[in-house]
Structure prediction request, 164 residues.
Amino acid sequence: MKILETKRLALRLYNEADTEALTEMYADIDVMRYVGTGKLLTREDAVKSVNFWNNYHAKKGYANWAVEEKSTGRFIGKCGLDDVPELGQTEVSYMFGKASWGKGYATESAEAVLEFGLRELKFEKLMALTYAENFSSQNVLKKIGMVYTDDVEVWGVMLRRFSS
Prediction:
């Protein structure tokens, strides 16, 4: 089921076929370095993620959705909204496999998600978290109009918070 569509991407619910590509991303240190606590994850974690995010969407009407390249139909990452209870806020987040880096996909999908959250879901404000040394992600957030607000500790990690 498609949730959002951009010029080049479709954001949709996950399917079983996404598990293998997600497993590869979770096992790649370069991809995971700035995701969550920075730990590598397993295939079992990928299976749990697919189920978790589809159930999250069913409950909330938003989630971290699978991102598919429209021209190939290939799963290339994830992007969406999720609540961060520790901060009492909702986050725009994204993660892409290395083969998709440098193509503007993070910016394209995050911008669509931000707009969807503010306009369709009527969030007053959204935020995003990034490691201080993850300049690429910070550039994405600036491109979509988010601004740095402060540093916060979440999941035992110091992160930079950007707000809409």
In short: Helices lie at 18-26, 29-32, 43-60, 105-120, 135-143. The CA atoms of residues 91 and 128 lie 5 Å apart. Residues 2-81+91-124 form a domain with the Aminopeptidase fold (CATH 3.40.630.30).
